[in-house]
Amino acid sequence: MAFDVKTFTTRTITAAIFVAVLLSCILFHTLSFTILFLIISIWGLYEFYILTEWVGAKPYKWLGYLIALFVYISNLLSYHTLLSTSSLLAGIIVCVFLVFIRALFDTSEYSFKNISYTITGVMYAVVPFVLLNKIADVNITSQINYNPHYVLGIILLIWTNDVCAYLVGSFFGKHKLFERISPKKTWEGTVGAAILTIGASFLIAQWIDELELVHWIVIAMLVSVFGTVGDLVESMFKRQAGVKDSGKIMPGHGGILDRFDSLLFVSPFIYLYLTLFK
């Protein structure tokens, strides 16, 4: 295949803008972090619902968006004790049942499928970013407890894992990892990336010393395993929908779900680990 200068230029410019916006919003202030990932959550949910329509579902989009906003904002309110944890849980349960009530007015033949995809979209595209807020200890009114370093470290490890999996797989890959879902992924690339990502955790531990090295090693292992799973799950969605990318918001790189598929799967497991063992 001939080298396409235009495509390369488009991808490079898009990647540069993406990295600049992402890092700036994470580092600048807790409010910019909150707003950025709220926008990413809602747009990711939009892309997820579009994918489900390609497989014949008709999710209740606007109800899904409202539930996503409730879950995201309620988490911030619970941080300030303006909303207790029990109230937050009760609110989420009510939101779920609202989806079932909405289905009563659904005249389509597959209302159960529509219920499932509406709720699954919020769980898949929104909840992981809510947990990312918790990892960063987001406080929308002050910078006192806000610590973006953990999130930066996680993102750097994800990028390391993705790049190394591609490079090692390109040079040494022979055995397919999950050919039915992602024909290009190999065991050699996956294992090699895991080793190099764990190696990168030693460097990150020197830079972000709020966490001990052992924690960064475990986080690197979680990134290697669940980042790869997240990539495979997103590939499965797109393959079943018959599309190449989840969206077109990032020219040359696809959509939000394409860029954050690993982070979506990694965030819940890292949050659980830090909650239990930090």
Question: Per DSSP, what share of the residues sits in E-state strands of 2 or more residues?
Answer: under 5%
Total DSSP helices: 10
Shape: globular
Domains counted in the coordinates: how many?
Answer: 1
Report the strand count: 2
Q: What is the rounded Rg?
A: 19 Å
**Roughly how many Å apart are the termini?**
49 Å
Helix/strand order, N-terminal first? HHHHHHHEEHHH
Query: How helical, in percent, are the residues?
Result: over 70%
Question: Within the largest sheet, what's the order of strands?
Answer: 1-2
Sheet bearing the most strands, described?
Answer: 2 strands, antiparallel
Question: Low-confidence runs (pLDDT<50, min 5 residues)?
Answer: none
Mean pLDDT: 86
Structural class: mainly alpha
Describe the protein.
The chain is an all-alpha fold and 278 residues long. It has ten helices and two strands. The chain has helices at residues 5-28, 30-54, 61-79, 85-103, 111-125, 127-135, 149-172, 187-207, 213-241, 256-277, and strands at 176-178, 182-186. A two-stranded antiparallel ribbon has the order 1-2. Helix 2 packs antiparallel against helix 6.
